[in-house]
Fold this protein.
Amino acid sequence: MSIYADKKGISPIVATILMVAATVVSAVAIAYWMGGVAGLYTRYEKIEIVNAHAAGGPLSSGGEGWIVTISLKNVGSADTSIEGVLLNGKPFSHYAHGGGLSITVKAGGEPFNPDKGVALNVGQIVEFTIEIPKCDGDPSWPFTPGVTVEVRLRSSAGQEYIRTLAIS
């Protein structure tokens, strides 16, 4: 007679139920873990231009000109920043006139510095204000009434967000 003769094991049905339950619990745990890992690598940048307009009037630096206002909203899942502002394909700092006139760009009311950029966190709206002075009588100044201005805002991810506006 064996010492295990009076011992009984679990039934095959109970064993099957326990194995299925352990498998389901493991699968759920792995799915949650994989979802968290995948979320780290699937963050993306998406910026929308929610408002853009141009109007003539007095500039903050004095004189007359046009004020271009563009509001951006980060609707993506990753924070980003705007690191460049181009007008008609050239950096805004390219447009400096000998008479002391230059184009100024403000983001959120502060002067824009391309070296630092402007942070645009998820859900945040930032308003860019571009002041273009009038330079009457100088044919080399490209901004005159009726001209269209292409504004490109370049993000830290290398994406460009473009809006074309007519100044009048």
